[in-house]
Amino acid sequence: MKTSLLILFNFCLIGAAFGQKQTTTKLYFYSDPSTELSTVANPTEPIIINQCTLVETNLDSLGLKIFKNKTVYIPLKPGQTYYFRRVITSHASLATATLSACSEEDFWLNGYFSGMRTYRHYFLGKDSGLKLLAEEK
User: Fold this and answer.
1) Tens digit of each residue's pLDDT (9 = 90 or more) over 5-51
2) pTM of the prediction?
3) Mean pLDDT, the chain, whole residue set
4) What is the rounded distance in angstroms from the CA atom of residue 77 to the CA atom of residue 49?
5) What are the φ/ψ torsions at residue 17 (nearest 5 degrees)?
6) CA distance to 20, 23, 24, 73, 93, per residue, from 81 (Å)
7) How far is residue 41's CA from residue 124's CA, in Å, rounded to a whole number?
């Protein structure tokens, strides 16, 4: 009896180990007009950020190239969802773009009232690189 319970317990442990799905991080971006996001994981293929863009990743940080010799890493928590909004303000002849973290409600309400019309869903993987999973216009 103990042997059969031990075997059943081992099968449960093996099943749990292989059945675990890797948790991804989701980053939502909103930008109008469009812009590009180049990361260390995809330096030759930038992510096009236009209206609503979802970047799903299994990376533990997002490395952004700043200038030629400077890289900044933004730490990411697995399973977390982040929302960012790019806002352009203009004063006289100078326009400034800022990217701000925002709440989920703020992101979707601003997208709705500004007429969000496009959606892109990317996966940025450690081993697989960048893949466009869905695009709606």
Assistant:
1) 344 444 444 444 444 456 999 999 998 778 888 888 888 888 888 88
2) 0.76
3) 82
4) 22
5) -65, -40
6) 20, 11, 9, 17, 36
7) 8
Q: Compute φ and ψ for 92, nearest 5 degrees.
A: 55, -115
Give the burial string for 100-123 (b: 16+ CB within 10 Å, else e): eebeeeebbeebeeeebeeebbbb
Contact between 34 and 48 under an 8 Å Cβ cutoff? The reply is: yes
Residue 124, classified by CB atoms within 10 Å of its CB into exposed (0-12), middle (13-18) or buried (19+), is buried
How is the chain split into domains, by residue range? 23-136
**Tokens 């933004």 -> residue:** 74
Tokens of 57: 């990743």
